């Protein structure tokens, strides 16, 4: 017996509206998902561009510090840069490049007096980066967070909340390796040229905090908080496991008033 052509044709006629409706619904759903994803991406880029616009358009110096390590300096005469600081550099460069900007990478000891009055992105705390140390001293009385020496761990740093007097100390395992870290993100006018240049500091007590803070500069939720806050200081906390950072959070953000 041959196929019932008439019955198959009738089934197609009846089924076609349902198939068409499903295809149209799927297409509309796909367009809506694409549109929402694209809108979120554009909004994220707009916020990131707003943050970097002033510096990025003028090709800022991205400044790394280099440890001397005393007698070990003979093994690395130019100094040694921590992996977390390098990760922060890569992250910040990627953020600038995505927005069509670029920076000039420099080591802290290479900057001339004229360079110090330029737009600067400083990577690393005052122990690792001499320019960070200089700028934090110049910002004394302007910012409410600072770095201090860890009273229990020689050569280590802690964040000092100058408002409350509290010391925010990284936590350590028995071996002495940190299992948590704190960092600061600071955005102010450059104190050496406040009318013409901007300054961003990304600095942890350890290099883990520095890398985590750099990543936060590309975080959509963090950037949204900064919408009406051009100059600010933010306290960041991160968990450290096997020398990698996780679960980074912004503990507090404080506005820096115009000078």
Query: Strand portion, in percent?
Result: 15-25%
Order of helices and strands: HEHEEHEEEEEHHEE
Summarize the biggest pleated sheet.
7 strands, mixed
Please, how many domains? Answer: 1
Question: How would you portray this structure in words?
Answer:
It contains 5 helices and 10 strands; from the N terminus they run αβαββαβββββααββ. It is an alpha/beta fold. The protein has one domain (47-255). The strands form 2 sheets. A 7-stranded mixed sheet has the order 2-1-3-8-7-9-10. Helix 2 runs parallel beside helix 4 (207-216).
Short description:
With 259 residues, the protein is of the alpha/beta class.
List keywords for this structure.
globular, 259 residues, 7-stranded mixed beta sheet, alpha/beta, 3-stranded antiparallel beta sheet, 5 helices
Write the layout of secondary structure elements.
Elements: H1 5-56, E1 61-64, H2 83-98, E2 104-107, E3 120-123, H3 130-138, E4 145-149, E5 157-161, E6 167-168, E7 180-189, E8 198-204, H4 207-216, H5 220-225, E9 232-241, E10 244-255
Parallel strand pairs: 1-2, 1-3, 3-8
Antiparallel strand pairs: 4-5, 5-6, 7-8, 7-9, 9-10
Helix pairs in contact: 2-4
């Amino acid at each position: 017996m041959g196929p019932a052509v008439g019955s198959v044709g009738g089934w197609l006629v009846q089924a076609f509206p349902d198939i068409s409706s499903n295809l149209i619904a799927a297409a509309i759903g796909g367009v809506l998902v694409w549109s929402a994803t694209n809108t979120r991406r554009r909004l994220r880029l707009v916020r990131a561009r707003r943050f970097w616009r002033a510096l990025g358009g003028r090709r800022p110096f991205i400044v790394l510090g280099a440890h001397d390590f005393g007698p070990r300096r003979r093994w690395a005469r130019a100094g040694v840069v921590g992996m977390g600081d390098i990760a922060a550099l890569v992250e910040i460069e990627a953020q600038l490049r995505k927005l069509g900007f670029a920076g000039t990478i420099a080591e802290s000891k290479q900057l001339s007096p004229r360079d110090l009055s330029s737009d600067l992105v400083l990577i690393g705390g005052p122990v690792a980066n001499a320019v960070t140390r200089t700028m934090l001293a110049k910002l004394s009385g302007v910012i409410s967070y600072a770095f201090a020496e860890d009273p229990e761990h020689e050569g280590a740093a802690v964040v000092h909340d100058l408002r409350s007097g509290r010391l925010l100390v990284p936590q350590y395992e028995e071996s002495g390796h940190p299992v948590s870290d704190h960092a600061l993100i600071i955005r102010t006018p450059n104190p050496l040229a406040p009318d013409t240049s901007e300054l961003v500091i990304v600095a942890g007590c350890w290099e883990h905090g520095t890398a985590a803070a750099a990543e936060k500069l590309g975080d959509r939720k963090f950037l949204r908080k900064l919408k009406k806050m051009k100059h600010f200081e933010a306290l960041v906390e991160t968990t450290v496991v096997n020398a990698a950072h996780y679960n980074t959070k912004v503990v507090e953000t404080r506005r820096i008033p115009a000078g």
